[in-house]
Design a protein that fits this description.
CATH class of one domain: Alpha Beta
Largest sheet: 3 strands, antiparallel
Helix content: 40-55%
CATH architecture of one domain: 2-Layer Sandwich
Structural class: alpha+beta
CATH topology of one domain: Double Stranded RNA Binding Domain
Strand order of the largest sheet: 1-2-3
Number of strands: 3
């Protein structure tokens, strides 16, 4: 994954933030929308695209666009930096291939201990019975 090339492919759009904030919200476009076109990306190869498409299926639109937004700060530049960092973390996490689980066997000592405990409990219960005459 080439970080610089991916960042060059990102499209940013500044819009007005919603919610409380007074006059600043009404006149300043500080909210940043990040759009990334997965299919048109040159920085990712086909395997990486397929992996991202499966792992981020819920976050992608029907046209395979990844849209993230940030309106945490009053500054447009800070919001752009935050959303870019969030995007890169999301992509890096999606590209991690999990290791296959190697099934292990139950150790012989554990099986023996369980059977020994079981037989001792059975013996205790057997001793509770009245003796047959």
């Amino acid at each position: 994954m080439e970080t610089d090339t991916i960042i060059a492919e990102l499209q940013f759009k500044a819009v007005r933030s919603s919610g409380a904030g007074g006059q600043n919200v009404n006149k300043v476009s500080s909210k940043v929308l990040l759009t990334f076109d997965l299919k048109a990306s040159q920085a990712l190869d086909e395997e990486e695209k397929a992996l991202i498409e499966t792992k981020l299926a819920t976050k992608l639109t029907s046209e395979n666009l990844l849209i993230l937004n940030c309106d945490e700060d009053r500054s447009q530049l800070k919001n752009k930096a935050i959303v870019t960092k969030r995007f890169l973390e999301l992509i890096e996490k999606a590209l991690i291939i999990p290791k296959k689980r190697k099934p292990t066997r139950v150790p012989k000592s554990v099986v023996e201990k369980r059977l020994k405990d079981k037989s001792s409990v059975a013996e205790i219960k057997q001793n509770r019975k009245k003796p047959e005459l």
